[in-house]
């Protein structure tokens, strides 16, 4: 049995940003709040979006102070704005951090409380302000997931919140918005999308629906990740990565992520490593740890990603997957924790608490091989020996 949750409307393709007024009309919104960040203002994306709304005669207001890796404090002013004024929808414009912020603002703005009260294992399914998500990275897949991640800055913990409340009612997947994303962010977010698809496929919560989305995502992402990193102007590659990222989001939202994400969030929270980068640091070691527990599944991933040949048997495909993930990190210039500037003594001082936080997130329990806290500590240590 599986329960599938999706946005009601998904507009896909270059130029679909212009469909925003009809999407808003479709969901009955006459006065949306745009939630975004300073980069979107600087790049002119907010101005473009507002001119589309102005031409359609749609009144709107803006909260542009969301931050990368959002914290409870960084969303507070947005929540206040929703509570003090009358909006009938939230438009989330930006990368995963903007969309995650918008989700929390749309839900807490309507139902009150603090983000801590919504954290896993609670499932929150009440309909908050409807969210129209417009991602500008290919990426987090947040536009099609029933999750948000907000950091509690008091404890340096990334809080995972889930439920249909956090699923956007509509998503506009316009790859044109990703053309100017710099190479580093392109790589980090692209790796994140690849990890979503792999983890959804090997997850203990995988189901035939999530499998179909995960495999389709891997077929799009595998051959195009290097291409977009080396040539951001390759429109075909950008288009494939954008759709792949959304399909990967649908896959993991309807299955789960697993050990990479479980262990990645604490690294992000303690050392402010961008999410996709901490995933990339962990992916080879976690895959090595998990491979034998789901050999056929990992082999399917290797073949779908085109890292192995369709004719390779499962053992060969698994080995090729491991080797390619290591090579990929080199080619995409993924730093080691040391190269990123993390102080080894500090990292080792928080190993146990990171393993505890990983376990508390619930994600490691979805892994094909469920680790003990001690095994997670061992994997964290391996990041320094490679
Ligand atoms: Fe992710």
Automatic annotation (TrEMBL):
CDD domains for this protein: Fe-ADH-like (cd08194)
Span of domain Fe-containing alcohol dehydrogenase-like C-terminal: 186-383
TM annotation in the entry: none
InterPro entries in alphabetical order: ADH_Fe/GldA, ADH_Fe_C, ADH_Fe_CS, Alcohol_dehydrogenase_Fe
Cleavable signal peptide: none
Cofactor annotation: Fe cation
Keyword annotations: NAD, Oxidoreductase
Disulfide bond among keywords: no
Pfam families: ADH_Fe_C, Fe-ADH
PROSITE patterns assigned to the protein according to its UniProt record, in alphabetical order: ADH_IRON_1 (PS00913)
Domain Alcohol dehydrogenase iron-type/glycerol dehydrogenase GldA: 7-174
GO-annotated molecular function: alcohol dehydrogenase (NAD+) activity; metal ion binding
Family: Belongs to the iron-containing alcohol dehydrogenase family.
Protein name per UniProt: Iron-containing alcohol dehydrogenase
Origin organism lineage: Bacteria, Pseudomonadati, Pseudomonadota, Gammaproteobacteria, Enterobacterales
């Amino acid at each position: 049995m599986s329960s599938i949750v999706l946005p009601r409307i998904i507009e896909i393709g270059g130029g679909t940003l212009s469909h925003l007024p009809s999407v808003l009309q479709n969901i009955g919104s006459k006065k949306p709040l745009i939630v975004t960040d300073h980069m979107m203002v600087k790049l002119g994306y907010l101005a473009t979006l507002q001119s589309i709304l102005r031409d359609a005669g749609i009144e709107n207001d803006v909260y542009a102070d969301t931050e990368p890796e959002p914290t409870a404090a960084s969303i507070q002013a947005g929540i206040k704005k929703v509570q003090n004024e009358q909006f009938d929808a939230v438009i989330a414009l930006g990368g995963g951090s903007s969309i995650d912020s918008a989700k929390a603002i749309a839900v807490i703005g309507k139902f009150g409380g603090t983000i801590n009260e919504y954290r896993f294992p609670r499932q929150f399914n009440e309909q908050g302000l409807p969210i129209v998500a417009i991602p500008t990275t290919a990426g987090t897949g947040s536009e099609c997931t029933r999750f948000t991640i907000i950091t509690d800055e008091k404890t340096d913990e990334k809080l995972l919140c889930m439920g249909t409340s956090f699923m956007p009612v509509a998503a506009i997947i316009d790859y044109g918005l990703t053309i100017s994303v710099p190479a580093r962010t392109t790589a980090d977010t692209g790796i994140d999308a690849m990890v979503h698809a792999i983890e959804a496929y090997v997850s203990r919560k995988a189901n035939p629906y999530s499998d179909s989305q995960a495999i389709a995502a891997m077929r799009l992402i595998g051959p195009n990740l290097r291409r977009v990193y080396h040539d951001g102007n390759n429109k075909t590659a950008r288009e494939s990565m954008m759709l792949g990222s959304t399909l990967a989001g649908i896959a993991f939202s309807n299955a789960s992520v697993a050990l990479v994400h479980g262990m990645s969030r604490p690294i992000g929270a303690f050392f402010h490593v961008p999410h996709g980068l901490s995933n990339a640091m962990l992916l080879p070691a976690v895959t090595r740890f998990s491979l034998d527990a789901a050999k056929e599944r990992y082999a399917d991933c290797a073949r779908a990603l085109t890292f192995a040949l369709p004719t390779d048997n499962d053992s060969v495909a698994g080995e090729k997957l491991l080797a390619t993930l290591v090579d990929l990190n080199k080619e995409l210039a993924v730093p080691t924790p040391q190269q990123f500037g993390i102080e080894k003594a500090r990292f080792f001082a928080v190993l146990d608490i990171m393993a505890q936080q990983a376990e508390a997130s619930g994600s490691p329990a979805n892994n094909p091989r469920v680790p003990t806290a001690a095994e997670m500590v061992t994997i964290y240590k391996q990041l320094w020996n490679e």
